Each structure stands twice: as structure tokens, then as C-alpha cells.
Amino acid sequence: MLESVKISRRQSEIRQALAALVGKEKPTEEEVRQIEAMDLEYRTGETRFRAALIAEDSERREAGAELETRDGKEYADLVSKFEVRQVVDFYNSQRALSGETAEVVAEMRSHGAYKGVPVPYAALDIETRAGETVASGVPSPVVTAPIIDRIFAKSAAGSMGARFINIDHGSNEYPIVNSSVTGGWAASEGGSVAGPTVYSTAERSVGPNNTFGITMSITRKALLQSGAGLEAAIRRDMNGCLAVGMDKAVFQGAGTGGEPAGVLVGSYGITSTAVTAAASWKAFRGAVVRFMTANAANGPGSVNLLIRPEVYDFMDDTLITSTAVSEWDRLVKNVGKPVMSSNALAAPTGTPKASKALLTTSVNGVSPIFVATFGSIDVIRDPYSDAASGGLRLTALATMDVTVSRAEQLQILIGVQSSAS
Questions:
Q1: What SS3 class is residue 119?
Q2: Which of 81, 115, 167, 378 registers the highest number of CB atoms within 10 A of its CB?
Q3: What local confidence, expressed as pLDDT, does residue 133 receive?
């Protein structure tokens, strides 16, 4: 019971007792002492009652906030216990899903249509466990060692400030302000100020138009020999493969053949500047200045830079005349930690070798790139391809789309040379 309720009930009892005592014309000395004692207790109770209400108000607010987010927290707890291994067992030996995995699958199926077993994206977001190297092949569970993961590049989209959105179904539109409201001074007393400026927005939409597929073939030996290691390996393998495909689509997507239109390829109106010179801090500084001139960035520290590894190699080897400082030292002193990817950007071509570079910045919390995933990962079994060997082939389908917010928040540099003429 709340303390304020206990105090309120006691105050009511005191009032009833006082009403009986004060009604007497000639109370005894004992009754007078009771009246004085109850009066003091009543006044003290009033102070305690106000204090209890203040304390309980804070508790009610905290409890209310917890109740508002309890459903989300409970579902997140269930997803954290999702076992991809159960999906494999379901397809391989028709073993029924159980526990938290069954609850999550039932919840997702109630909100979307899936041909196979849906797997939430969050179920793949598991920390990669570091450990000692083991021999190639699938290890026996008798040996305590992690399975060696394939080498996948980490996601560059997140490092470049992209916002990831998960949509249950349908399409989403995001209104982005694309006008520039200006003011002006009145030329004379009683004169009018500058005329009205149109406040307009542009809608950036994402839709479930592009599906990326991951196919995994699990041998019978792996199914019979591996224990919990198979669970972690499938998670990391699928997550890494998804990150590679997503990064390439976000930046280099052709917009045809089932791919979304990537940032470097799509018709987004992004300023594209031809450098056609050796990679240097001066070349990137020009793009940073354009950001600052357009009020999109306060300085180089708020700008993200995406380059090829070859550009780093060339700049780090290029020393400024009569100094031990390289062009790379000048770059990282201003920009911070550039993002290097051989997957998000195409390999250098031509003579001398040259590639593209991308600069992005966030404005008032608005991300430069939107990456949308729809529903969950739909895992489907192919019962025929590996039937002769007793293996299991799974296809994971992920529906995604990409768009940009304001073109002013991105800059593309072309012809950034990473080799001598």
C-alpha cells in the first residue's frame, strides 16, 4: 500500500476521534490531553502526506515510463534469446520451434507474410567473439574454440552517418525542408520588410522494391558435428554477408537489375566535383569549404569522409616538401577518422589510377542517407539442391531500399588519383 494512502486513512481516523471529543462541553483532563496529542499528530500527518505525494509522483512517473516501453523491452529481450540454430533444426529434422524463438516467430508472422521462418535483423547483431585460431573445417564440440569467420568488411554506411530504419510493411515518406527562408530590413520608417519566402519541403520515399538474397549450404557433417558453434557461425556469416551487400548497394547500387539506386549512382542532385589530381588534403578541403558555405557543416570535424584504401596508401607516402608530415597527417588532423572501404567504392581505374570519394554531414540531427529494411529476414529452405548429400541449403531474403535526405549534405569527388602520373 502507498504511504500516502496509509497517512490519509490515519488522518480520517483522527478527524472522527476529534469530532467525538470536541463535542463534549466539559471534557476531562485526559480527554484534553488526547485532543492536544491528536491535533499535533494531525498537523504532522499533513506534512508527511504532502511529502509522500511528492515522492510517489516521481515513482509514478518512472513506473509510467516503464509501462509505456515495457512491450518494446519485453520483445527486445525475446529477440536477444532468438536461436538461429532452431531454424536450421526446423528445416533439417522438422523439430518444432520452442521457447523465445517460437514466440518471436509467431509475433512476426502475425504482422507480415513470410514464406519461410522469419528471423529478426536484431538476432544477427551479436558481438563477434575473439578467440584463438583453429584448424580449417568444422570443429568438434569437444574442442572449446570458436569457428573461424569469413573475412567481411564492416559496414561503412553506419560510419558515414546513415540512418537505419525498419518498416513493418508499406512505404515511408520523409519530408525534408529544401527552401531557404531569408529576412530583410525595412528601408524606412513605416516601410515593409522583405517579402515572404516560400517554405517548402521535398519528400524522400523508400519502398519494398529491392530484395537481397543470401544462400547458405550447410553440410550434413556440420549439422551433426557442431553444437552451439554453428549458431554463432551462421549469425556472424549472415550478418557479415548482409553488411557487404548493403554497403555496396547503398553507395554503388545501379538502380537496375533489382538493385536500389546508390548514393554515387542515383539521380539525387548531389554536387559532383572533378578533382583530376593527386589525392591531398587540399582536394578534400575544397569540399569541406563548400559544406560550410552552404551552412551544412560547422567545420571539418563534422564531416565524414569515405575513400579507397589506395588513397590512404598514396597520401601517407606523400610528404610535404622539407617536412616529415604527410598529406595523410594533414587530413586526419582536420577530418578525424576517415572511412576506408574496398567494397563501398569502386576500384581505381585509368592512368594514373583514380577513384571516387564521398563526403557527408548531418544537419540538426538529420542523417544524410536513409537505409530502410522491411519486415524481417525471411529464411526459406531449398529441399532439392543438396538432397543427395543430406545437406541443408537455406536462402535468406532481405528487402531493402536507400535514399538521401538533402543533396547539400553530400559531396562527391571524382578523379581522386592514388598513383603517380
A1: strand
A2: 378
A3: 35
